[in-house]
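# nightly structure sweep
# worker-07 picked up a monomer target from the shared queue
# config: single-sequence mode, recycle default, output format = structure tokens
# input follows
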Amino acid sequence: MYESYYNLSAKPFQLKPDPRFFFSSRNHKRAMAYLQYGISQGEGFIVITGEVGAGKTTLVRNLFRDLDAEKIVAAQIVNTHLSSEDTLKMVAAAFGVPFADASKAELLTRIEQFLRNCDRQGKRALLVVDEAQNLGSQTVEELRMLSNFQTNDNCLLQTFLLGQPEFRHTLLGADMVQLRQRVIASYHLGPMDPDECRTYIEHRLHTVGWRNDPSLHADVYTRIHAFTGGIPRKINTLCDRLFLMGYLEEIHAFDLSHIETVIQDIEQEFDRGNASLDDAPMPVSLVVRPGDPREAGFEHVVERLGKIERALQSIVDALTKLLFSPKIKKPLEETNP
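# output follows
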């Protein structure tokens, strides 16, 4: 919606992971170095943890983009709310191994055959398990057992475990000793600092052709970092809302008042979601008389609503022209004699 208004080639603050927007913050560079180190070793487990939205999945997508498909067969599973046996089926499915109606023993045999076939072709298998904090101890043990598949010279399967911070506590459990012994590297992906936050936002904007329209005052970047804690997904969500407001209200230069308005809207939405009807405030008169302290605020609201109304009307006009243009109407008429 706001992309065309600001002459951007695509949406800069989408939530889905996209390697095009990968940003190498200090922490992301270190995490990537650990993953690449793991690839070079070709064995064991690599553990990457981070808060929700820290960029773990984007990190792996970027890694996959640079993998040599002639040497590494990579697969990823993200649904981890499963039993240990169902997880084995997910692993098989991720690698394209048939699993329907197979017993656990048959399933393990098929996975091993697949891994040995990869080895004969001079390839290594890499399994990435996302949302690892949801794995039960028995499921983790099944994944560890898969690492036992090996030849005299090579480990047939390497596994990367990505999860939220609580997964580190899981690894400290008494029943995780054998897995810990096979973890060759681990790293916690922390948030970005204020300078990186600004560079991150501008990086995503430049990726889609931003030419400083809209411009962002320095205070805006500072407030974005303070509100989001430097977490990429939170930054994307907030910036997306800011740019949407800019489109609706025809803003080409964001200042502190604009980002505060968006933050207040978000906070009010969450407050409404958590509050009950009993917590609702008493009705306030909507009559604003001259000299009333609320008059300036009321005028501001009216102005905002007017801009929103004009923007929505422009969308309706564009859709109307599209639906009733001769190029579209003619084929419809021909199909209905």
